[in-house]
Structure formats: structure tokens, C-alpha cells
TrEMBL record:
Belongs to the sigma-70 factor family. ECF subfamily. Residues 13-77 form the RNA polymerase sigma-70 region domain. It comes from the Bacteria. Residues 107-158 form the RNA polymerase sigma factor 70 region 4 type domain. Keywords: DNA-binding, Sigma factor, Transcription, Transcription regulation. GO terms for biological process: DNA-templated transcription initiation. GO terms for molecular function: DNA binding; sigma factor activity. CDD domains: Sigma70_r4. The keyword DNA-binding applies. This is RNA polymerase sigma factor. The keyword Protein transport does not apply. InterPro entries: RNA_pol_sigma-70-like, RNA_pol_sigma-70_dom, RNA_pol_sigma70_r2, RNA_pol_sigma70_r4_t2, RNA_pol_sigma_r2, RNA_pol_sigma_r3/r4-like, WH-like_DNA-bd_sf.
Amino acid sequence: MTQAEEQLFQHIYSTYRIPLHRYLAKRTGDDSEAADLAQETFVRMYEKRVQPETAKAWLFKTGYHLFIDQWRKKRRTPQVPLESIPDMPVVGGSPEVVAVGAELRSEISQALSKLKARDRQVLLMLLNRGLTYKEIADHFGVTENAIKTLVHRARKRMRELMEA
């Protein structure tokens, strides 16, 4: 891309980033999903080198189509029940260790139940099933970086819930 095209993209990005994010947030009801969809929309715009005259319409149309694709995939995605979380092995047999282990399992389960369904599902896919970021991204139909961001945010939220 030439420097002029790069500046044009930056201008379009700065002009439509917030309106597109708001539009997608209203559709998804989830700020992080909207951010992921907006990011993917701008990446596609950058790759296709959309003309500035049609940029606004193209962005909102593409964002909507990405939202619909994601919604369809979610409908087909089975939800992982909390009961599928395996018990953590207890090392040592003293009553104190067993009690602490049981308390920790309970806190983890409670914190997981307070996460958004998608965050919980991604964490369980990563930790319990041992799937890679790439496999999870393919499953949800998003980029690997989007899944990494989602995992980071979900882990941060888990820490906040565990500390509370």
C-alpha cells in the first residue's frame, strides 16, 4: 500500500471505528464480540482496498454479514455445561488439604458460572479439551488473535471474580 492509501485507510478507520463498533454492539449485545467483529471488518476492508466513496456502506454491510455468520455458528455450537469440569486432583491426604481443594473447586465453579457463556466455553475448550487457539478460532469462525484476546479477557475476569 502506498503512503497515501495508508493515510486514507487511517482516516476511514478513525471516522467509522466508533460508529461501526456501536452498531455491532447493538446487534451482538456484547462489547468484546462487537470489537472482534469490527476488527475483522476493518482487516477485510484493508485487504480489499475498498474505495473511500463506498467505505461506509461497505463497512456496515460487511460487519452485518460477519455478525450473521457468527450468530449462525453460535446457534450450531453446543454449550459446555459446568458439570463437565473435572474435579481437580488432590495431592496429599490431610483433611486441611482436602478442604482447601474442595473450597477452591467451589470458587472456580462459581466464578466460571458468572462468566459470559462464550468466555466460559472458550476457557473450557482451551483447558479441559486441550484445543489450540487455532482450533478454537476455527470452531468459532474468528481469527486466532481474536481468541487470544477473548482468553486474555476471560482469564482477567476470572481473576477479578476469584479475588472478590
